[in-house]
């Protein structure tokens, strides 16, 4: 149910709120402002106790809300070419904010051949020109910086910032695509917004607002509050919520600091309470719950902040309320609801995470990208980029590749020789199809032209042997511009290209089978824990007497899993080392900070490293010298066996990640996140979200973390997870054991020869006896 009075949905409400705010300024001469955080790329670090009071605190009035073009999704500089070229990026304004001022600071260069009186760069917001930048001759060819003020009235909730280049190099006849007509804008250019908050109602129908706003492109930093040290059931409920918010945050990333019996000083938060009676946290009084209850209230410390209260008479009711918030939030309304019934309709299946490509049916491209983005225009419109999130453990051994059936349309030019549609996969060329002009079409194709568009199709295979889990399919129309002659060249915007949304990619026939351990796939997809999207086959083993920082690391890890799968972890189990035997049939995520995890000593023989006080031991290989691919099935190609064992004393304790086969069940896996000190787990989670981790530094079976530095130390794949069809499994096993294959072939020859010999002897005897 949608809240029609939500400030994020109702423009009338926004206008009235702005008027009331301005009236308050006139009456009182001051304006209380909760500004947004200063920079999306620099979230505040958690406190030593794991809290996030600093992260939740907003700057004073007038501080800008800054985004570089890189943060707005432009991973490369904007190059504008021709007499009239435009490129755009999108930006949104959070629903609980209104923009009172804006500007963009551009860093740019341009051609020395341009005529300054006829050339310029126009800055447009939502197709309205906000300002023009002249291009004087004396500054040409050098990096320039210009600041353009943007009227606040041009900015709405969803916006488009466009840069239009108008260029001319001669007063006479000119080639509209001449090489001297160019301007280049750095993607480090910055858009700055100044905002003031808008009041919001205590209404659950707005969920996930205001706790997560998809318009806000910053990392999500959402504190979790417990009335007292939480039990395992309450932590499982918190994990359900943090994974849900992590799934919503997606590429933005998420962080969930923990506070015990203390509310956030500013902003929003999630409060979990398991109690039969009334409770109080700071100035917040929580009524005795009548069952699993969801309530939205205003933060007593901040009139512009909201708190989501997830309460119950026991931990099971809190878990049910958390699951209702994550899975059924679209159905609730009002400031408080009691969940009377919550029953899953169907259980999850392995590898069925919403974010991953299914392997049991063809997938339409319209399921992966907005159909509008499959249409392009112009002679060089850029790539149509389609994200492909492959499920982990996808076995590509002896496979031809994923089948792509592509149906497309284009505008045939009267004559041309170089127009084409280029299909690329992760920037690698797969196929190029010539876009035939009208003068080269036969009568059948000419008759097939409908509305000036010709429909064609192609079938290609996408090689998955070395493909990353987060891959991209790139489709690019390249139209050849045919010159008409001196003073006759005019760019006419009459060329179009379109990819049929019904085009499909098909992963049927692929098995799930992978050599383990593989920390690279753990970092990218949370595997093996995310094999079940709800983490129903996962147990998290927390340290004894876990600190606030340990709990924050646990919630942040669950947020990463939710981001990978797109589904909340409603089935995760939380335990400690003493109860580990109850969860022998699950994959285990073991977390430690310092010496507070007994399993590190109990399983020392399985660990490739051991840190005890000031004594440290590590197994090392040549992985750092020869980084290999980690998505293949052949362990011999990627494995870097132990070459050195080193022990030393002194120095700072090292945090590390490692994986191994579960000592409790050979079909299960263990991943250990061990912080060298009480803040080590926080360092590990920060390192996993760093640019170094995104560049592939996390791989192998042992990784050391020192601050933001990540060092892969060992790569030993010792066991396998998943399954293949019996015939493929036999073929693969024989390919890995060549000597055994020859012995089996020799034995088969002997058996066949023996059978043939006995058969022929029997026939000869029968003939002689006759």
TrEMBL record:
* Residues annotated as transmembrane: 738-760
Per UniProt, subcellular location reads as: Cell inner membrane
The record ties this protein, via Pfam families, to: BcsB (PF03170)
| Endpoints of the signal sequence | 1-37
* Record-stated family: Belongs to the AcsB/BcsB family.
Pathway as given in its UniProt record: Glycan metabolism; bacterial cellulose biosynthesis
Q: How does it sit in the membrane?
A: Single-pass membrane protein
**Domain of life, source organism:** Bacteria
The species is: Herbaspirillum frisingense
**Keyword annotations from UniProtKB, A to Z:** c-di-GMP, Cell inner membrane, Cell membrane, Cellulose biosynthesis, Membrane, Signal, Transmembrane, Transmembrane helix
Q: How does it assemble?
A: Tightly associated with the cellulose synthase catalytic subunit.
List the protein's name. Cyclic di-GMP-binding protein
User: What is known about what this protein does?
Assistant: Binds the cellulose synthase activator, bis-(3'-5') cyclic diguanylic acid (c-di-GMP).
């Amino acid at each position: 149910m949608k809240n029609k009075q939500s400030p994020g949905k109702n423009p009338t409400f926004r206008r009235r709120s702005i008027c009331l705010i301005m009236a308050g300024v006139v009456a009182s001469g001051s304006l209380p402002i909760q500004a947004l955080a200063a920079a999306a790329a620099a979230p505040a670090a958690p406190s030593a106790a794991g809290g996030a009071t600093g992260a939740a605190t907003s700057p004073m009035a007038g501080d800008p809300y800054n985004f570089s073009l890189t943060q707005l999704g432009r991973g490369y500089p904007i190059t504008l070419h021709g007499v009239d070229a435009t490129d755009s990026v999108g930006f949104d304004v959070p629903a609980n904010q209104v923009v009172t001022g804006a500007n963009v600071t551009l860093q740019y260069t341009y051609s020395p051949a341009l005529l300054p009186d006829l050339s310029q760069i126009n800055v447009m917001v939502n197709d309205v020109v906000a300002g023009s930048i002249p291009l004087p001759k004396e500054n040409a060819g050098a990096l320039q910086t210009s600041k353009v003020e943007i009227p606040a009235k041009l900015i709405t909730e969803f916006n488009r910032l466009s840069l239009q280049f108008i260029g001319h190099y001669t007063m006479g006849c000119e080639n509209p695509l001449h090489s001297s007509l160019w301007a280049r804008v750095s993607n480090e250019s910055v858009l700055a917004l100044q905002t003031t908050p808008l009041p919001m109602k205590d209404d659950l129908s707005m969920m996930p607002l205001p706790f997560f706003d998809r318009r806000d492109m910053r990392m999500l930093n959402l504190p979790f509050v417990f009335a007292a040290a939480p039990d395992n059931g309450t932590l499982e409920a918190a994990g359900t919520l943090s994974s849900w918010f992590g799934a919503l945050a997606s590429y933005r990333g998420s962080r969930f600091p923990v506070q015990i019996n203390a509310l956030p000083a500013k902003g929003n938060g999630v409060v979990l309470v398991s109690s039969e009676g009334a409770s109080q946290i700071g100035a917040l009084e929580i009524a005795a719950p009548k069952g699993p209850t969801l309530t939205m209230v205003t933060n007593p410390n901040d009139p512009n902040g909201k708190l989501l209260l997830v309460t119950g008479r026991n931990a099971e009711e809190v878990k049910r309320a958390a699951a209702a918030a994550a899975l059924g939030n679209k159905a609730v309304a009002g400031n408080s609801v009691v969940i009377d019934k919550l029953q899953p309709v169907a259980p999850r299946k392995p590898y069925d995470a919403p974010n991953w490509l299914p392997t049991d049916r063809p997938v339409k491209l319209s399921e992966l990208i907005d159909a509008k983005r499959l249409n392009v225009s112009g002679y060089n419109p850029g790539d149509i980029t389609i994200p492909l999130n492959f499920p982990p453990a996808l076995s590509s051994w002896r496979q031809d590749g994923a089948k792509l059936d592509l149906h497309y349309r284009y505008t045939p030019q009267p004559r041309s020789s170089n127009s084409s549609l280029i299909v690329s996969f992760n920037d690698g060329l797969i196929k190029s199809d010539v876009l035939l002009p009208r003068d080269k079409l036969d009568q059948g194709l000419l008759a097939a032209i409908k509305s000036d568009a010709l429909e064609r199709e192609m079938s290609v295979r996408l090689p998955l042997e070395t493909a990353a889990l987060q891959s991209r399919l790139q489709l690019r129309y390249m139209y050849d511009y045919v010159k008409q002659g001196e003073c006759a060249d005019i760019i006419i915007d009459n060329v179009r290209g379109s990819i049929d949304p019904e085009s499909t990619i098909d992963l049927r026939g692929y098995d799930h089978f992978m050599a383990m351990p593989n920390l690279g796939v753990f970092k990218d997809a949370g595997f093996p824990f995310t094999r079940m999207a709800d983490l129903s086959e996962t147990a998290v083993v927390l340290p004894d007497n876990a600190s606030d920082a340990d709990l924050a690391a646990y919630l942040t890890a669950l947020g990463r899993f939710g981001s990978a799968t797109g589904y909340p972890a409603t089935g995760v189990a939380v335990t400690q080392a003493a109860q580990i035997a109850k969860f022998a049939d699950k994959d285990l995520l073991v977390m430690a900070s310092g010496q507070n995890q007994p399993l590190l000593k109990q399983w020392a023989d399985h660990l490739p490293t051991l840190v005890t006080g000031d004594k440290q031991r590590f197994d090392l290989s040549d992985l750092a010298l020869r980084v290999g691919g980690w998505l293949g099935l052949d362990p011999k190609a990627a494995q870097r066996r132990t070459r050195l064992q080193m022990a030393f004393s002194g120095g700072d304790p090292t945090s590390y990640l490692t994986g191994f086969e579960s000592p409790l069940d050979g079909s299960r896996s263990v991943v250990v996140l061990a912080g060298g000190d009480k803040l080590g787990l926080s360092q590990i989670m920060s390192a996993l979200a760093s640019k170094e981790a995104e560049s592939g530094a996390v791989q192998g079976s042992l990784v050391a973390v020192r601050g933001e530095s990540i060092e892969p130390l060992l790569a030993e794949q010792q066991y396998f997870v998943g399954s293949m069809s019996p015939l493929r499994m036999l073929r693969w096993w024989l390919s890995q054991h060549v000597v055994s294959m020859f012995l089996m072939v020799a034995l088969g020859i002997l058996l066949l020869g023996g059978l043939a010999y006995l058969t022929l002897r029997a026939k000869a005897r029968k003939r002689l006896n006759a």
